[in-house]
Write a structure and sequence with these properties.
Blueprint lengths: L1 H25 L4 E5 L11 E4 L14 H25 L8 H15 L3 H21 L1 H14 L1 E3 H8 L3 H28 L4
Antiparallel strand pairs: 1-2, 1-3
Helix pairs in contact: 1-2, 1-5, 2-3, 2-4, 3-4
Length: 198
């Protein structure tokens, strides 16, 4: 019985982390990797190691749509783990979401800088956005969760390839085509500069 409960817990963790990964990827937030390897020191069953905030992101200094959207994407990505886990388990998670919630609340206060009432309303809106995203991207979340259970750790590119098979190959061929096009344009530009009366 313990093994069944343990397997269910690790599967729930995979869905939790897959929720973070797919929400991050879908919103254009790059990350280094996502894993379901437990970290006893940090007290986590898994985690996503995100990239640092861009240098321009300073919601305490500047308020703009760009700042708000970046912060909002982070909040949605933070909420997506527990929303995906809850959808998989068909009940809310009991643990593992406190640090995600804390990060979301801190970000909301940075973005809103207003009353608790305003922050709570903003977080409810972000929660609804997260539920919509998880429901729309459930197929991708299931695929990433299955890959995490099999491999334990996935890079950003692994997540893209798992969520959308073939997309990395397509991206590679598009980049190669663009490089050839740039080289051809550059070559023509050099020819025109050398022979301006052509």
């Amino acid at each position: 019985m313990k093994k069944i409960i343990g397997a269910r817990k690790s599967t729930a963790t995979a869905y939790h982390e897959a929720g973070h990964a797919v929400a991050s990827w879908f919103q254009g937030l790059k990350f280094k990797y996502v894993t379901v390897k437990p970290d006893a020191e940090a007290g986590s069953l898994g985690h996503l190691l995100g990239n640092r905030f861009p240098r321009w992101f300073q919601p305490d200094v500047e308020y703009s749509d760009r700042q708000r959207l970046q912060g909002e994407r982070r909040i949605v990505a933070d909420f997506a783990g527990q929303v995906a886990e809850a959808k998989f388990r068909r009940k809310p998670p009991r643990y593992g979401m406190h640090s995600d919630n804390q990060k979301a609340v801190e970000m909301a206060f940075h973005l809103c800088g207003c009353s608790t009432k305003t922050v709570e309303a903003y977080l409810r809106c972000c929660w609804c956005q997260t539920q919509d995203l998880v429901n729309r991207r459930w197929r991708e979340i299931e695929a990433v969760a299955a890959a995490l259970l099999e491999r334990e750790t996935l890079t950003y590119d692994d997540v893209i390839e798992t969520a959308r098979p073939g997309s990395l190959a397509l991206r590679g061929s598009l980049e190669a085509g663009m490089a050839r096009k740039r080289a051809a344009v550059s070559s023509r530009t050099r020819t025109v500069k050398m022979n301006p009366h052509r």
